[in-house]
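re: ur question from yesterday

yeah so i grabbed the chain u mentioned. its 101 aa long if i counted rite. heres the sequnce exactly as i have it in my notes:
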Amino acid sequence: MKPLTSKQRAHVRKLAHHLKPLVLIGSDGVTPAVLEAVLEAFNTRELIKVKLQESAPVEVRDAANQIASGIEDVHSVQTIGKTMVLFRPHPDKPEIRLPGA
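ran it thru and got these structure tokens back, copy pasting raw so excuse formatting
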């Protein structure tokens, strides 16, 4: 998995601005059920937001890294407060065109 360049990250952040969180991480942290929910969300889209609830036992960057390492080809694009932006290009027909790709 090739890391995103700063221009690509900025482009994906811009596209994610209007999105609402699709997955919530609660008091159990990043569990297999959370990974499955994120994977399910990536079945229909390439870009998602995940939010940590106040009761979550992990920091947002740690949770983003756990998800990115637990699911193949997921990029942690941005973390703001308790929200993270995750990107996973579609393997066959990517909808999001990255600059310089």
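noticed a couple things. Residues 6-87 form a domain with the Translation Initiation Factor IF3 fold (CATH 3.30.110.60). also Strands lie at 23-25, 47-52, 75-80, 83-87.
anyway ttyl
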